[in-house]
Amino acid sequence: LGIADLALTCMPVTLDHDDVDAIIDLVEPPLVEADDGTEESPTAPAVLLEPNPDGPEADLEEPAYDILVRVLGDIRVEGGEPLTAKQTAVVTYIALHESVSADRLEDAVWAGPMTSRRKRLANTMSECRALIGRRHLPPATDGRYRTGPGVVTDLELFDLRTKRAADQPPEEAVESLRSALDLVTGPPFTYRTADRSSFSWVDLENWTSTWELRVASEAERCAILLLRQGRIDDAVL
C-alpha cells in the first residue's frame, strides 16, 4: 500500500507467535501481585471504546440523504451535478459548519482583498442551487447559510458508526468501526494545490490534523479489538 502524498509505503509482514505475544503484551495490562501473593490482572484501562453518554437507547440511525459531502479523502460533493472547486468549497464549508454568516463564508472561500465579494458569493450560491437542488441550499432568510436535511457529510456518518460501536459486543463493534474506516478514501481534506485559494480554511481551522488523529485513533481501536478476538490477519490488514 503506497500513499504518495505522504511519501508512505506499507509492506505486509508475516507475524510469528513471538511477535503476536509481544503485540498483545503492549495492549494487555501486566499482572500485578495481589495482597495474598497471587498474581492477577488489574482492571483494564478504557483503551477501547468509550461508552455512549446518551445510553444504548440513543438514536444512532444514519439519516437518509441525497447529497454526500466527502472530506475523508479528496474533498468532493456527490449526488448532484459536478461542481467547480469554488462551488465545492462553498457547499463543503456550509455543510461542515451547519450555520454560516455571509461575511465568514466570504473570508473563508475568498481569502484576501478583492472587490465585489458579496456579488461573487450570491452568484456562486445560485450556481450551487442549480447544480445540487435549491432545497439543499435554502435562502439565507436570517443572514446565515445552511444546508438542507438532505445533505450530510462523511464526518457525520463516521461519528455515527463509531458511536454505535461503543454499545455493541466486540464482534459487531469491529464491523461498525470497519464501516466507518471504509469512508476514508485517502488523506483527509485533500485538495489540488491549484485550488488552494478556495480551501485555505482547511489549514487555518486545522481540519486535516484533527481528522488524521481521529481516523488513526479509531483504526487503532479496531485493531485492538481484532487482536483480542485472535483475528491477527484482519488486524494486520
In terms of topology, how is this protein built?
Blueprint: E1 2-3, E2 8-9, H1 17-27, E3 32-33, E4 39-40, E5 67-70, E6 76-78, H2 85-97, E7 100-101, H3 102-109, H4 117-132, E8 144-145, E9 151-153, H5 154-165, H6 170-181, H7 196-204, H8 207-228, H9 232-236
Parallel strand pairs: 5-9
Antiparallel strand pairs: 1-2, 3-4, 5-6, 7-8
Helix pairs in contact: 2-4, 5-6, 6-8
Can you give a write-up of this model?
- The structure is a single chain.
- 46% of the residues lie in helices and 9% in strands.
- It has 237 residues and is mainly alpha-helical.
- It is elongated.
- The N and C termini lie close together (10 Å).
Count, helices: 9
Overall pLDDT metric: 82
Question: What is the helix content?
Answer: 40-55%
Please state the structural category: mainly alpha
Which regions have little confidence, pLDDT < 50, spanning 5+ residues?
41-49
Shape: elongated
Q: What is the makeup of the main sheet?
A: 3 strands, mixed
Portion in beta strands: 5-15%
Strand order across the biggest sheet? 6-5-9
Task: Give the topology string: H per helix, E per strand.
Answer: EEHEEEEHEHHEEHHHHH
> What is the terminal separation in angstroms?
10 Å
Number of strands: 9
- C-alpha Rg, in Å? 22 Å
